[in-house]
Design goal:
Shape: globular
Strand content: 5-15%
Helix content: 25-40%
Order of helices and strands: HEEHHEHEEEEEHHHH
Length: 239
């Protein structure tokens, strides 16, 4: 298959059926250790796949209701199934951020979209703020021509108050990094109920991309995954 601009647009349309979008891409240099493509030969190009806001949520929930209630890592499983089907249709290899050994998804994303990390570690997007994600990637053994990445405005550089470092009651995020254990203990404890119900207070304090902010039930799902209780299916009244 020749991967023309039209083919890339067809891939984007196939992903859109499940609320996913293309998040940029690039060609690997001749001197890079590129991952293997579908045949096992080194890939020449990659397209990142992800979401803006919580657009895939309704698609994921419909899929989730057909699965066993105790399925492990359901969002990863759904992403792999959906992206894998698109990869099969177009004859390319699909990879996931959860694959082992881990692939450098954050570095790929920064290269593909010109983004930089926020103080929380999440890449800051000039439109979506902190409310976006990367769900997988497609590896091509042919050259493709994705839109050229341009360095994006890094909104964190213009943010003086840094509310994302001041809203957590246990100070989980700071200039020193992320205090994972302190955060986990808090989220699992009695005082962590607001975090479990509505998401990370530091992340929600960020003023950018508010129109893409995940709904409370979506954030509760992700917080349950962090706390280790993601197998619980959200109540129908929360959809």
């Amino acid at each position: 298959m020749t991967f023309s601009r039209g083919t890339v647009e067809e891939i984007a349309a196939a992903l859109a059926a499940n609320g996913l979008i293309l998040r940029g891409g690039f060609s690997f240099g001749d001197d890079e250790m590129a991952p293997a493509g579908l045949s096992g030969a080194p890939a020449k190009s990659v397209l990142l796949i992800g979401q803006a806001g919580a657009a895939p949520w309704s698609h994921f929930q419909r899929w989730r209701e057909r699965q066993a209630r105790d399925i492990a890592n359901p969002l990863d499983s759904w992403s792999c199934e959906v992206i894998g089907a698109v990869a099969q249709e177009f004859g390319v290899r699909a990879v996931s951020p959860s694959d082992r050994p881990y692939l450098p998804f954050q570095q790929w994303a920064m290269r593909a979209e010109g983004l930089k990390p926020s103080p929380l570690g999440i890449l800051m997007h000039p439109a979506y703020g902190l409310w976006h994600a990367y769900r997988g990637a497609l590896l091509f053994e042919d050259e493709i021509s994705p839109p050229e990445a341009h360095e994006a405005i890094h909104l964190c550089d213009t943010c003086v108050e840094k509310p994302c470092l001041k809203s957590c009651p246990v100070g989980a995020y700071s200039v020193a990094g992320f205090a994972h254990e302190a955060c986990l203990v808090h989220v699992r404890g009695t005082d962590g109920a607001p975090c479990r119900a509505g998401g990370c207070l530091d992340r929600n304090a960020c003023p950018y991309g508010a129109e893409y902010r995940y709904r409370a039930d979506v954030q509760a799902f992700h917080m349950a995954a962090f706390a280790g209780t993601v197998g619980i299916l959200p109540n129908r009244t929360e959809t």
